Prior knowledge:
The record marks 18, 78, 160 as: Important for substrate specificity. Its cofactor is a divalent metal cation. Belongs to the Maf family. YceF subfamily. Belongs to the Maf family. YhdE subfamily. The structure is a single chain. The protein is of the alpha/beta class and 195 residues long. Helices cover 33% and strands 26% of the residues. It has a single domain (3-192), classed as Maf protein (Alpha-Beta Complex). The chain has helices at 17-25, 50-63, 93-103, 138-148, 162-167, 175-179, 183-191, and strands spanning 9-12, 30-32, 71-82, 85-87, 107-117, 122-133, 168-172. Strands 1, 2, 3, 4, 5, 6 and 7 form a 7-stranded mixed β-sheet that branches.
Amino acid sequence: MLDNLKKYKVILASNSPRRKELLTGLGVDYEVRTLPDVDESYPDTLQGADIPLYIAKEKADAYRDMLQPGELMITADTIVWLDGKVLGKPKDREDALCMLRAMSGRTHEVFTGVCITTTEWQRSFAAQTEVRFSKLSEEEITYYIDKFQPMDKAGAYGVQEWIGFIGVENISGSYYNIMGLPVQRLYKELCLVES
Length: 195
Protein backbone atom coordinates (compact mmCIF):
# COMPACT_ATOMS: atom_id res chain seq x y z
CA MET A 1 0.00 0.00 0.00
CA LEU A 2 0.97 3.65 -0.45
CA ASP A 3 3.08 2.74 -3.48
CA ASN A 4 2.59 6.36 -4.58
CA LEU A 5 5.09 7.37 -1.86
CA LYS A 6 7.92 5.31 -3.39
CA LYS A 7 9.34 8.34 -5.19
CA TYR A 8 9.69 10.12 -1.82
CA LYS A 9 12.01 9.69 1.11
CA VAL A 10 9.56 10.07 4.01
CA ILE A 11 10.78 12.06 7.01
CA LEU A 12 9.05 12.05 10.40
CA ALA A 13 10.08 15.24 12.18
CA SER A 14 9.26 14.04 15.69
CA ASN A 15 10.96 12.44 18.69
CA SER A 16 7.66 11.00 19.93
CA PRO A 17 7.91 7.22 20.38
CA ARG A 18 4.13 7.03 19.89
CA ARG A 19 4.23 8.83 16.54
CA LYS A 20 7.06 6.53 15.41
CA GLU A 21 5.03 3.46 16.42
CA LEU A 22 1.90 4.72 14.65
CA LEU A 23 3.67 5.65 11.41
CA THR A 24 5.42 2.27 11.42
CA GLY A 25 1.98 0.69 11.84
CA LEU A 26 0.92 2.27 8.53
CA GLY A 27 3.70 0.34 6.80
CA VAL A 28 5.54 3.51 5.78
CA ASP A 29 9.33 3.42 5.47
CA TYR A 30 10.66 6.62 7.02
CA GLU A 31 13.53 8.18 8.85
CA VAL A 32 13.36 10.43 11.89
CA ARG A 33 14.84 13.91 11.67
CA THR A 34 14.61 16.30 14.60
CA LEU A 35 15.81 19.76 15.45
CA PRO A 36 16.44 20.90 19.01
CA ASP A 37 14.28 23.70 20.38
CA VAL A 38 11.67 24.25 17.67
CA ASP A 39 9.50 27.13 18.87
CA GLU A 40 6.09 25.81 19.90
CA SER A 41 4.56 29.14 20.92
CA TYR A 42 1.45 30.40 19.16
CA PRO A 43 -0.67 33.57 19.01
CA ASP A 44 -3.04 33.72 21.99
CA THR A 45 -5.91 34.54 19.62
CA LEU A 46 -5.92 30.93 18.34
CA GLN A 47 -8.48 28.45 19.72
CA GLY A 48 -8.85 24.66 19.71
CA ALA A 49 -7.72 22.87 16.55
CA ASP A 50 -6.10 26.01 15.14
CA ILE A 51 -3.37 25.80 17.81
CA PRO A 52 -1.79 22.42 16.93
CA LEU A 53 -2.32 23.17 13.23
CA TYR A 54 -0.34 26.39 13.60
CA ILE A 55 2.44 24.64 15.56
CA ALA A 56 2.65 21.74 13.06
CA LYS A 57 3.13 24.30 10.26
CA GLU A 58 5.73 26.20 12.32
CA LYS A 59 7.62 22.93 12.84
CA ALA A 60 7.50 22.28 9.09
CA ASP A 61 8.81 25.78 8.38
CA ALA A 62 11.71 25.21 10.81
CA TYR A 63 12.79 22.16 8.78
CA ARG A 64 12.04 23.52 5.32
CA ASP A 65 15.57 24.75 4.59
CA MET A 66 16.91 21.23 5.24
CA LEU A 67 14.33 19.55 3.02
CA GLN A 68 15.68 18.13 -0.23
CA PRO A 69 13.80 17.52 -3.49
CA GLY A 70 12.19 14.08 -3.30
CA GLU A 71 11.66 14.25 0.46
CA LEU A 72 8.23 14.28 2.10
CA MET A 73 8.14 15.46 5.71
CA ILE A 74 5.43 14.89 8.32
CA THR A 75 5.16 17.22 11.32
CA ALA A 76 2.47 17.08 14.01
CA ASP A 77 1.40 18.63 17.28
CA THR A 78 -1.22 17.47 19.78
CA ILE A 79 -3.04 19.38 22.50
CA VAL A 80 -5.67 18.59 25.10
CA TRP A 81 -8.44 21.23 25.22
CA LEU A 82 -10.59 21.76 28.31
CA ASP A 83 -12.69 24.77 29.33
CA GLY A 84 -11.31 26.85 26.46
CA LYS A 85 -7.71 26.26 27.56
CA VAL A 86 -4.77 24.17 26.39
CA LEU A 87 -3.50 21.44 28.66
CA GLY A 88 -0.01 20.93 27.26
CA LYS A 89 2.85 18.88 28.67
CA PRO A 90 2.92 19.35 32.45
CA LYS A 91 5.67 21.52 33.92
CA ASP A 92 6.01 19.34 37.01
CA ARG A 93 4.22 16.76 39.17
CA GLU A 94 1.83 19.32 40.69
CA ASP A 95 0.85 20.57 37.22
CA ALA A 96 0.16 16.96 36.11
CA LEU A 97 -2.00 16.39 39.22
CA CYS A 98 -4.01 19.56 38.49
CA MET A 99 -4.62 18.51 34.88
CA LEU A 100 -5.92 15.05 35.73
CA ARG A 101 -8.07 16.42 38.57
CA ALA A 102 -9.58 18.93 36.10
CA MET A 103 -10.39 16.19 33.55
CA SER A 104 -11.77 13.72 36.10
CA GLY A 105 -15.45 12.97 35.49
CA ARG A 106 -15.55 15.25 32.45
CA THR A 107 -15.19 15.30 28.67
CA HIS A 108 -12.23 17.01 27.02
CA GLU A 109 -11.07 17.27 23.43
CA VAL A 110 -7.80 16.19 21.86
CA PHE A 111 -6.71 18.05 18.74
CA THR A 112 -3.80 17.06 16.50
CA GLY A 113 -2.54 19.22 13.68
CA VAL A 114 -0.58 17.46 10.93
CA CYS A 115 1.45 19.05 8.16
CA ILE A 116 2.75 17.16 5.10
CA THR A 117 5.47 19.11 3.31
CA THR A 118 7.70 18.71 0.27
CA THR A 119 9.91 21.28 -1.45
CA GLU A 120 7.03 21.86 -3.90
CA TRP A 121 3.85 21.81 -1.79
CA GLN A 122 2.36 21.66 1.68
CA ARG A 123 -0.91 20.18 2.91
CA SER A 124 -2.25 20.26 6.46
CA PHE A 125 -5.26 19.10 8.46
CA ALA A 126 -6.48 18.79 12.03
CA ALA A 127 -8.25 15.92 13.77
CA GLN A 128 -10.52 16.08 16.83
CA THR A 129 -11.40 13.39 19.37
CA GLU A 130 -13.66 13.74 22.41
CA VAL A 131 -12.58 11.79 25.48
CA ARG A 132 -14.70 11.25 28.60
CA PHE A 133 -12.96 10.34 31.83
CA SER A 134 -14.77 8.62 34.67
CA LYS A 135 -14.45 10.15 38.13
CA LEU A 136 -10.86 9.45 39.18
CA SER A 137 -9.91 9.15 42.83
CA GLU A 138 -6.97 11.10 44.20
CA GLU A 139 -5.27 7.76 44.86
CA GLU A 140 -5.67 6.72 41.19
CA ILE A 141 -4.35 10.06 39.93
CA THR A 142 -1.25 10.06 42.16
CA TYR A 143 -0.56 6.37 41.44
CA TYR A 144 -0.63 7.03 37.70
CA ILE A 145 1.58 10.11 37.82
CA ASP A 146 4.13 8.57 40.19
CA LYS A 147 4.30 5.22 38.37
CA PHE A 148 4.08 6.37 34.72
CA GLN A 149 5.67 9.85 34.82
CA PRO A 150 3.54 11.31 31.98
CA MET A 151 5.51 14.56 31.78
CA ASP A 152 6.10 14.26 28.02
CA LYS A 153 2.40 13.94 27.19
CA ALA A 154 -0.20 16.61 26.47
CA GLY A 155 -2.76 16.64 29.26
CA ALA A 156 -0.46 14.55 31.46
CA TYR A 157 -1.77 11.22 30.25
CA GLY A 158 -1.28 8.48 27.69
CA VAL A 159 -4.55 6.82 26.67
CA GLN A 160 -2.63 3.59 25.94
CA GLU A 161 -1.38 3.44 29.55
CA TRP A 162 -2.99 2.39 32.85
CA ILE A 163 -4.99 5.62 33.20
CA GLY A 164 -6.65 4.93 29.85
CA PHE A 165 -7.51 1.38 30.89
CA ILE A 166 -9.22 2.43 34.12
CA GLY A 167 -10.34 5.99 33.37
CA VAL A 168 -11.54 6.42 29.80
CA GLU A 169 -15.31 5.87 29.66
CA ASN A 170 -15.99 6.99 26.12
CA ILE A 171 -14.18 8.11 22.99
CA SER A 172 -15.75 9.86 20.02
CA GLY A 173 -13.29 10.09 17.13
CA SER A 174 -9.89 8.55 16.44
CA TYR A 175 -8.26 6.64 19.30
CA TYR A 176 -4.85 7.07 17.63
CA ASN A 177 -5.36 10.83 17.50
CA ILE A 178 -5.27 10.77 21.31
CA MET A 179 -1.87 9.05 21.06
CA GLY A 180 -0.62 11.89 18.85
CA LEU A 181 -1.17 10.92 15.21
CA PRO A 182 -4.57 10.43 13.53
CA VAL A 183 -3.24 7.65 11.30
CA GLN A 184 -6.50 6.83 9.52
CA ARG A 185 -6.80 10.44 8.28
CA LEU A 186 -3.05 10.61 7.59
CA TYR A 187 -3.33 7.46 5.46
CA LYS A 188 -6.12 9.04 3.40
CA GLU A 189 -4.06 12.20 2.92
CA LEU A 190 -0.98 10.21 1.92
CA CYS A 191 -3.07 8.25 -0.61
CA LEU A 192 -3.77 11.58 -2.35
CA VAL A 193 -0.07 12.33 -2.85
CA GLU A 194 0.73 12.11 -6.57
CA SER A 195 3.25 9.43 -7.49
